[in-house]
Amino acid sequence: MDILEKLFSFMLPEQATGTASIIDQIFYAIIGLSALVTILFFLVVVWFVIRYRRRREGEKTGTITESHKLEIVWTVIPTIVFVAIALWGWSAYRTLEHPPADAYPIRVVGKQWAWVFSYTLDGKEIQTLGQLNVPINRPIVLEMTSLDVLHSFSVPAFRVKKDVVPGLKTQVWFTSNKLGSFQTYCTEFCGTAHSKMLATVNVMPEQQFERWLRDEAAASTTASPSVLGARLYEFKGCKSCHTLTGVDDVGPSFKGLVGKRREFEEGAPVEAADENYIRRSILDPKSQIVKGFKPKMNSFVGQMTDEEIHQITQFIKSLH
Ligand SMILES: [Cu+2]
User: Fold this and answer.
1) What pLDDT digit, counting tens, does each position of 251-277 carry?
2) Where are the domains of the chain?
3) DSSP annotation string for 101-137
4) Contact indicator for 130, 120 with CB cutoff of 8 Å
5) Cα(151) to centroid of ligand 1, in Å?
6) How far apart, in Å, are the Cα atoms of 248 and each of 241, 288, 292?
7) Separation of 240 CA from ligand 1 center, angstroms?
8) Ligand 1 centre from 85 Cα, in Å?
9) In the sheet where 160-164 sits, what is the strand order?
10) 319 near 256, Cβ under 8 Å?
11) Under DSSP, is residue 152 helix (H, G, I), strand (E, B) or coil?
12) pTM for the complete prediction?
């Protein structure tokens, strides 16, 4: 097995988890077996072509009678081989589907077109965007869901891949055994920027991970609401439709919004946009469609806490 793995290692990405070789060994075994059968098959074809060729003009081929012995052999051997492969795959599947009980949980939310990772420390939530930090040699279980469409979370070097589905929790687990950064991909076509829905897994020493987590937790308590709001602007995906520069995108730019007169496709204008107006725009965006724009924004009810709405409002207020 080791020889096969070394010989064909150019075919698969590097292995950075303990379970990667379980998958690779099955892959190599099936490829190896298929190659062997193909070669044997063609050898037999060539041999038959030579052995049973027509030697003289008008020569007849002999009568062929059935051979029960041969039929039993070519039925029983492949059956044993296929059942063995199935059992091997089944036992690997069981290992890969059942995270160890002490696995460290990290929540993953996929949305068009970013990954947000959440950690809990002393009851506080720490979030990162596009960066999954994990300690080395510790089982990690990712609890994943989607806010919009089907996505799929894949880390080739970890041999990890699972659909991320709105309204459903899916799980993958791994124990990374190599320090460094590894690329993740979304492997389910999910819209225009699907190919940019990337993230990096950073595998770090346990102590460095703990320190990072503590520092992040401390920073989130001391930062001002508007600084936290600036993070939410990215994390909650407002950035994909709203700019901060004054140039309109899918939605109006946030620059100078507070205090501005707002006109709508329907209904009375608002003389000066204030905190309440922003709150209503986030929770019930379809109630007032800003003039010149399409109703492309979905409500954030259930996706943002009151505190978060306050933070993002403070952030928008700070943009003159
Ligand atoms: Cu995606």
Assistant:
1) 999 998 998 999 999 888 999 899 999
2) 2-52+65-97, 104-222, 225-317
3) TTPEEEEEEEETTEEEEEEEETTEEEEEESEEEEETT
4) no
5) 4
6) 9, 17, 10
7) 14
8) 32
9) 131-135, 199-204, 180-186, 151-155, 160-164
10) yes
11) strand
12) 0.74
Cα of 113 from ligand 1 centre, angstroms:
6
* Averaged pLDDT score across all residues of the chain: 90
CA of 1 to the centre of ligand 1 (A): 35
Kindly list the protein residues that place their beta carbon closer than 5 angstroms to ligand 1, a single-atom ion.
151, 186, 190, 197
The CA distance from 144 to 131, in Å, is 15
Nearest to 105 by CA among 80, 139, 74: 139
**Residue 127 C-alpha to ligand 1 middle, in angstroms?**
19
Under a CB-based contact definition with an 8 Å cutoff, are residues 232 and 312 in contact? yes
**Residues whose CB falls within 8 Å of the CB of residue 6, separated by 6 or more in sequence, listed in order:** none
CATH number of 225-317: 1.10.760.10
The model's pLDDT over 97-140, given as tens digits with 9 standing for 90+, comes to 999 999 999 999 998 888 999 998 888 888 888 899 999 999 99
Instruction: Kindly report the backbone phi and psi dihedral angles of residue 179, in degrees, each rounded to the nearest multiple of 5, phi listed first.
Output: -75, 150
Residue 34 CA to ligand 1 centre (angstroms)? 34
Unique residue bearing structure tokens 């160890």: 100
* CATH number of 104-222, picked from 1.10.260.40, 2.60.40.420, 1.10.287.130, 2.30.29.80: 2.60.40.420
Distance 199 CA to ligand 1 centre (A): 11
Q: How far is the CA of 178 from the centre of ligand 1 (A)?
A: 26
Distance 18 CA to ligand 1 centre (A): 27
